[in-house]
Please model this.
Amino acid sequence: PAGRSKLLTFFSLKGGVGTTTVAVNTALLLRELTREPTLLVDLALERASVTAQLNLEVRRALDDLAQLPTIDADSVRGIISRHSSGLDVLAAPSKPQTAELVTAEILAQVFPLLKQEYRWIVLDTASTFSDANLNAFDQSDLVVLVGAPDLVSLKTLQACLDVFTALQTTGERRLLLLNHLYPKPRLERDEMEKA
Model:
């Protein structure tokens, strides 16, 4: 799939809007519908929520790459876990204290290797403009900004759009996704679109 690989990143600067849930479900659906090699990467490095949502036990995670003298395709394959759905998962560290070992430099080496192996790569990210996330945004074909129908989420989403404009992440590479978390929306959709 070299050259055909698509990297989709899910991000919100506000936690609790369902970014991980949307990323996990998107990856599962891509795998099920396309039957093509699909990888879910957990870049919410201090939370490791992807494995919890998938009820997946893993032996190795991204922080294991930090101990290696060189990173190659075999070493990356060695830390990928397979979910019962056929989805592959590159897990976040199981302990928050080792999250800092996963640097933007490591990710810059890993992403090209992943793009050679997978047709679809879905990234779940932390709610921060960290170096790791900035590297992911640069590599992404599409950044999905997840928001919820409330005022705080809307203001945070606007701040994100301002940052992405400054980062020169063009509109074609961004998608706004309104996740209806609440039984009754706190703001109506047309009000949000107007704002």
